[in-house]
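Q: what does this look like with copper (II) ion bound?
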Amino acid sequence: MKSIVLTILTIVAGAALVLAAERTITLEGTLVSSACYLGKFHQTGNDMGTHKNCGSECLKNGDPAGLLSKNNEFHVLVVSSHKLAPYVGQPVRVTGTDHNGAIKVEKVEVAEDGKWKEVNLTSK
Ligand SMILES: [Cu+2]
Protein backbone atom coordinates (compact mmCIF):
# COMPACT_ATOMS: atom_id res chain seq x y z
CA MET A 1 0.00 0.00 0.00
CA LYS A 2 2.72 2.41 1.02
CA SER A 3 4.59 1.79 -2.21
CA ILE A 4 1.46 2.47 -4.26
CA VAL A 5 1.03 5.83 -2.55
CA LEU A 6 4.68 6.61 -3.16
CA THR A 7 4.34 5.64 -6.81
CA ILE A 8 1.30 7.88 -7.23
CA LEU A 9 3.07 10.76 -5.50
CA THR A 10 6.03 10.31 -7.82
CA ILE A 11 3.76 10.38 -10.88
CA VAL A 12 1.97 13.52 -9.64
CA ALA A 13 5.28 15.25 -8.93
CA GLY A 14 6.54 14.26 -12.37
CA ALA A 15 3.42 15.62 -14.05
CA ALA A 16 3.78 18.89 -12.14
CA LEU A 17 7.34 19.20 -13.40
CA VAL A 18 6.25 18.63 -17.00
CA LEU A 19 3.53 21.26 -16.62
CA ALA A 20 5.97 23.71 -15.10
CA ALA A 21 8.30 23.20 -18.05
CA GLU A 22 5.54 24.31 -20.44
CA ARG A 23 6.08 27.99 -20.75
CA THR A 24 3.00 30.14 -21.25
CA ILE A 25 3.84 33.04 -23.53
CA THR A 26 2.06 35.91 -25.21
CA LEU A 27 3.23 37.01 -28.63
CA GLU A 28 2.15 39.81 -30.91
CA GLY A 29 2.56 39.65 -34.64
CA THR A 30 0.87 38.98 -37.94
CA LEU A 31 -1.43 36.03 -38.46
CA VAL A 32 -0.33 34.08 -41.53
CA SER A 33 -1.07 30.84 -43.33
CA SER A 34 1.91 28.58 -42.72
CA ALA A 35 1.62 27.17 -46.23
CA CYS A 36 1.74 30.64 -47.80
CA TYR A 37 4.46 31.94 -45.49
CA LEU A 38 6.73 28.94 -45.86
CA GLY A 39 6.39 29.10 -49.64
CA LYS A 40 9.15 30.85 -51.51
CA PHE A 41 7.73 34.38 -51.24
CA HIS A 42 7.15 34.52 -47.47
CA GLN A 43 3.65 35.91 -47.92
CA THR A 44 2.14 37.49 -44.85
CA GLY A 45 -0.96 39.17 -46.26
CA ASN A 46 -4.27 37.86 -47.39
CA ASP A 47 -4.18 38.85 -51.07
CA MET A 48 -1.40 37.00 -52.75
CA GLY A 49 -0.82 38.16 -56.25
CA THR A 50 -3.79 37.10 -58.32
CA HIS A 51 -5.05 34.84 -55.53
CA LYS A 52 -7.34 37.12 -53.57
CA ASN A 53 -7.84 35.99 -49.97
CA CYS A 54 -5.38 33.18 -50.48
CA GLY A 55 -4.33 33.19 -46.81
CA SER A 56 -7.88 32.86 -45.52
CA GLU A 57 -8.71 30.19 -48.06
CA CYS A 58 -5.68 28.20 -47.02
CA LEU A 59 -6.75 28.23 -43.37
CA LYS A 60 -10.30 27.29 -44.33
CA ASN A 61 -8.81 24.32 -46.16
CA GLY A 62 -7.06 23.29 -42.97
CA ASP A 63 -3.51 24.53 -43.53
CA PRO A 64 -1.85 25.32 -40.20
CA ALA A 65 -2.08 28.90 -39.01
CA GLY A 66 1.15 30.67 -38.17
CA LEU A 67 2.32 33.77 -36.37
CA LEU A 68 5.08 36.02 -37.62
CA SER A 69 6.17 37.80 -34.47
CA LYS A 70 7.32 41.40 -34.35
CA ASN A 71 10.95 40.29 -34.39
CA ASN A 72 10.28 38.10 -37.45
CA GLU A 73 10.17 34.75 -35.69
CA PHE A 74 7.78 32.27 -37.27
CA HIS A 75 5.62 30.08 -35.03
CA VAL A 76 3.16 27.37 -36.04
CA LEU A 77 -0.12 27.81 -34.17
CA VAL A 78 -1.67 24.60 -32.90
CA VAL A 79 -5.36 25.48 -33.09
CA SER A 80 -8.22 24.75 -35.49
CA SER A 81 -7.29 26.91 -38.47
CA HIS A 82 -10.75 27.71 -39.79
CA LYS A 83 -11.56 29.73 -36.66
CA LEU A 84 -8.70 32.08 -37.55
CA ALA A 85 -9.29 32.20 -41.31
CA PRO A 86 -10.96 35.65 -41.34
CA TYR A 87 -7.96 37.29 -39.65
CA VAL A 88 -5.04 36.34 -41.93
CA GLY A 89 -2.74 39.30 -42.51
CA GLN A 90 -3.98 41.14 -39.43
CA PRO A 91 -2.15 41.97 -36.21
CA VAL A 92 -2.95 39.43 -33.51
CA ARG A 93 -1.94 38.65 -29.95
CA VAL A 94 -1.57 34.96 -29.18
CA THR A 95 -1.34 33.37 -25.73
CA GLY A 96 -0.40 29.73 -25.34
CA THR A 97 2.31 27.30 -24.38
CA ASP A 98 5.58 27.16 -26.26
CA HIS A 99 6.66 23.75 -27.52
CA ASN A 100 10.00 24.31 -29.21
CA GLY A 101 8.61 27.24 -31.13
CA ALA A 102 5.20 25.76 -31.91
CA ILE A 103 2.48 27.46 -29.87
CA LYS A 104 -0.35 25.39 -28.42
CA VAL A 105 -2.91 28.16 -28.52
CA GLU A 106 -5.07 29.10 -25.55
CA LYS A 107 -6.20 32.52 -26.65
CA VAL A 108 -6.11 34.66 -29.80
CA GLU A 109 -6.99 38.34 -29.83
CA VAL A 110 -7.39 40.62 -32.82
CA ALA A 111 -7.09 44.39 -32.81
CA GLU A 112 -10.44 46.08 -33.27
CA ASP A 113 -10.92 49.84 -32.84
CA GLY A 114 -7.61 50.03 -31.00
CA LYS A 115 -8.59 47.31 -28.52
CA TRP A 116 -7.80 43.60 -28.31
CA LYS A 117 -10.86 41.45 -28.94
CA GLU A 118 -10.77 37.74 -28.16
CA VAL A 119 -11.54 35.32 -31.00
CA ASN A 120 -13.99 32.60 -30.05
CA LEU A 121 -12.02 29.42 -30.65
CA THR A 122 -14.55 26.98 -29.23
CA SER A 123 -17.85 27.62 -31.03
CA LYS A 124 -18.76 25.44 -34.01
CU1 LIG B 1 -2.34 30.52 -49.31
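Residues 33, 35-36, 54-55, 58 surround copper (II) ion (CB under 6 Å). The radius of gyration is 18 Å.
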